[in-house]
Amino acid sequence: MQHVRIPRAVSIAPTIVWFRLDLRLQDNPALNAARARGGPVIPLYILDAAAEGRWAPGAASRWWLHHSLAALDGALRSRGSRLILARGAAGSVLRRFARATGARAVCWNERGEPAAAARDRRIQRDLAAAGLEVKSFRGSVLFDPSTVANRSGRPFQVFTPFWRRCRTLPVEKPQRLRRGKFVAPARWPRSLALGALGLRPKIAWDAGLAAAWSAGEASARRQLRRFVRDKLDAYAERRDQPAGDGTARLSPHLHFGEITPRQVWAALRAATREAGGVPAGRGAWVFWNEIGWREFAYHLLHHFPQTPQNPLRPEFAAFPWARNRAALRAWQQGRTGYPIVDAGMRQLWRTGWMHNRVRMILASFLVKDLRLPWQAGARWFWDTLVDADLASNTLGWQWTAGCGADAAPFFRVFNPVLQGRKFDGDGSYVRRWVPELAKLPVRHIHAPWEAPPTALADAGVILRQTYPLPIVDHRMARRLALAAYDDMKRPTGPRSRARWRSRRIP
Ligand code: FAD
Predict the structure, then answer these.
(1) pTM of the shown model
(2) How does pLDDT run across 251-268, given as a tens digit for each residue?
(3) Ligand 1, from 387, 389, 414: best to mutate by most atoms within 8 Å of Cβ?
């Protein structure tokens, strides 16, 4: 009798890989574990917006997600596989797909947001009860936040000692994807079409995003390679100039897990040929510190899960914020009359991204000059940033508002004119994003209201018509913000919140 060898793939049950914020093939422990089981691999993405609650992806993130899923599907197809798309409550979708495909196991990479992690634990229990094996792996952070603690065993709240401690910990090597095609199931389960997820905007406002970005793992890796090759050395000097292109522009790629901090680490090590613990060279050192801030953000979110809504420093809950829809609208639309603020807000609207220095300037402007709650700014960023990330956004806003960990003191109020002159000295950032001011001479570009009438006329600027006057007087607004802060600190709390709310911004 002839001996018939049954291919292994047929005899081993399929494994589902549940993709979330890990839209890549390389350095993907869940995918590697699924392949190592030897059976068919079913890559699955589930759009479960209801589970994300108020932090469901905003419009710009959804745009990115659409393109990143398309790229992941393309990469999987080049390996003989494909991405199955579904929507609904993730737990029941997973059970349904397991039943339909005969899968016996589900693998995923963990997410850093506490609410998502709690949901994962619930789903894991349900799947185990249904007889499925679940394997989860550390996702897109370098270190497990629950294991990094200060000497008293408590979470760090200051960046420098946190990162000093992290730098003593070994960074795992990125995992390579094994060569070869993936084992495909005998029959693929039905997938939704990508368009059916409804991620793309209904009205076409996304041309600027498409011009500025290319989502997906291949682009992320290219972007990292180019940055390390061409910009890393000068990063320390150029990272604070918004007009230049001196930063890595990796944040959306990192957020969606198209690339991991481990891969960044490996690229820095390879470029600087450093055999020791940290990459050599000032550029690499400073850049690695920035990756450290991302890590710190996840550390804080893990230990203080209330912070996307509530200030880490509880006394700030009593801060007498103003209520002013018109001012919020002017800020959102880039019509505050402060050119560097307006340039940033317009860059954000057009491209879904903004330089870090400008994020700090216009966040300070919202919170201190306009005295509007930092949560309103964080919410706007959530909807408009392609890199909107619960951990980093929360850290950035609480840092600026002075109510977070290792935050800028509240009395440090950024002067938008001086910041503009310092970091956009020749005005080219403002000229690019606020074209109605492009012809103003450099000495007036950051304060057009101080320009003499002839300079304005020569540049074609008509204040109030082609460009607004400042919506607040910075000096007065600063004084008022500091008074509000002092009031908050009174042992009995602010005198009257109503009094502050109604107080007009100067
Ligand atoms: P690079 O300077 O090249 O830095 C490399 C990477 O380090 C970044 O991609 C990012 O992952 C990380 N990083 C750098 N700076 C920070 C930082 N301050 N905090 C945390 N991680 C950092 N970043 C987000 O990814 N998502 C957000 O939603 C977000 N919201 C912010 C809101 C405010 C008010 C502020 C002040 C900052 C915010 N940041 C956020 C941090 C920072 O502005 C961006 O990470 C950075 O501008 C991304 O550009 P890049 O990749 O060129 O950065």
Answers:
(1) 0.95
(2) 999 999 999 999 999 999
(3) 387
